[in-house]
Specification:
This protein is an alpha+beta fold. Helix content is about 25%, strand content about 35%. The strands form two sheets. Strands 1, 2, 3, 4, 5, 6, 7 and 8 form an eight-stranded mixed sheet that branches. The longest helix has 18 residues.
């Protein structure tokens, strides 16, 4: 998709409307993922996390920044994700968490980012996190600086990629940390596989993007 400021304004406009929510999210959810209600989640006292879907112009197209996590002893080891993390006590809100973590993980200063909206929150059962995704746009992005301790690679993907259904594999084989092999819906970008919570959030954003492009 050729970059045009008009598409940013259209996305911003669509994000102010009621979000598509669960139905759009679960287009990319694994079949084994439970659909839990707020009443079921609240007693679990999930930790809060803020992530940022960062849009920016790159080589004339509109791209999204993803991080490939380093491998570690945890349920999300090595996965593709949005910059983000757990809310700290000094964060005023989850948007501030997302911006702080984005600076820490990929080196983009908060004052370079315009937050243009948010997506629906998402509960992640394996780690007991409630994730709150913000959507931001960086009009003048010079470079990334990956955090060596957590980020294996920063992966830049054009938004156009997610609009092409040929890039979705509904039966992608994934090996979990437990060693179990499961088949899940995933966006496959070369060697990079976006699945699980990140794919679910991306699915909702793709729905918003489709509405913005039809304006």
């Amino acid at each position: 998709m050729k970059f045009d400021n008009k598409i940013i304004e259209a996305i911003k406009w669509e994000l102010q409307k009621p979000l598509p929510g669960v139905e759009a999210q679960y287009r990319m959810a694994p079949s084994y993922r439970p659909r839990m209600t707020k009443e079921q989640i609240t007693p679990l006292h999930p930790k809060q996390s803020g992530v940022l879907l960062l849009l920016y112009e790159h080589a004339g197209s509109l791209d999204i920044a993803f991080t490939q996590r380093k491998k570690y002893a945890g349920v999300h080891s090595g996965q593709m994700s949005f910059p983000g993390g757990k809310k700290d006590s000094h964060d005023k809100n989850l948007q501030e968490t997302a911006l702080r973590e984005t600076k820490e993980e990929i080196g983009v200063e908060p004052d370079k980012i315009e937050v243009i909206g948010k997506l629906s929150e998402l509960y992640i059962p394996p780690s007991n996190f409630m994730v709150y995704p913000s959507v931001g746009f960086a009009p003048k992005l010079e470079r990334f600086q990956p955090q060596e301790e957590e980020v294996e690679e920063i992966v830049e993907i054009p938004v156009q990629f997610f609009l092409d259904t040929k890039n979705i594999n509904l039966q992608t084989e994934i090996k979990l940390v437990s060693g179990e092999i499961v088949r899940v819906p995933a966006y496959v970008f070369g060697k990079h596989i976006i699945w699980g919570a990140t794919a679910i959030m991306m699915s909702e954003f793709t729905f918003v993007l489709e509405r913005a492009m039809s304006r």
